[in-house]
Amino acid sequence: MTEPTPELHAAFSEPTAEAVPWSDVERILASAEIFWLSTVRPDGRPHVTPLPAVWDGGALHICTGDQEQKAANLRRNPHCALSTGTDKLHDGTDVVVEGRAERITGHARLVELAALWKARHDWDYRVLDDTFDDGAGHIALVFAVRPAKVLAFGKKPHSQTRYRFNNS
């Protein structure tokens, strides 16, 4: 993945603010334990839910039960947003990733991702043909969300930095 160029949005930033470096954003994406996934229900209402994700290869990877609302929403409309950050007003950086969820079904890639989930979240997944199995009979679909746009909100000083990607 080519490193995107940060664009500081001065209208939403304090005068002393600087763009958040992409390396800081990637560090946050790689270390965050929980993200908030926003999808759209068939009737247009939002659906937001917390879940762990894995940043790897320039994408956030998520999984969800095949019968869950978020899976149904992503099958119908793959456009979504994932956000992570802190609950502090004057500390840390919040990050929003907008993109399109694409199902991951390749067995070799699923094996790699299962190992990452184990290493980063201590979750054990068994890889079936094109899904994860949690060992208790729950099947999980795996998706990759490649960023179309990322927003980073610095909080000391307050700033808004935008990164655009060419894969939307």
TrEMBL record:
<dbReference type="InterPro" id="IPR011576">
    <property type="entry name" value="Pyridox_Oxase_N"/>
</dbReference>
<dbReference type="InterPro" id="IPR052019">
    <property type="entry name" value="F420H2_bilvrd_red/Heme_oxyg"/>
</dbReference>
<dbReference type="InterPro" id="IPR012349">
    <property type="entry name" value="Split_barrel_FMN-bd"/>
</dbReference>
<dbReference type="Pfam" id="PF01243">
    <property type="entry name" value="PNPOx_N"/>
</dbReference>
<keyword id="KW-0560">Oxidoreductase</keyword>
<feature type="domain" description="Pyridoxamine 5'-phosphate oxidase N-terminal">
    <location>
        <begin position="25"/>
        <end position="117"/>
    </location>
</feature>
<protein>
    <submittedName>
        <fullName>Pyridoxamine 5'-phosphate oxidase family protein</fullName>
    </submittedName>
</protein>
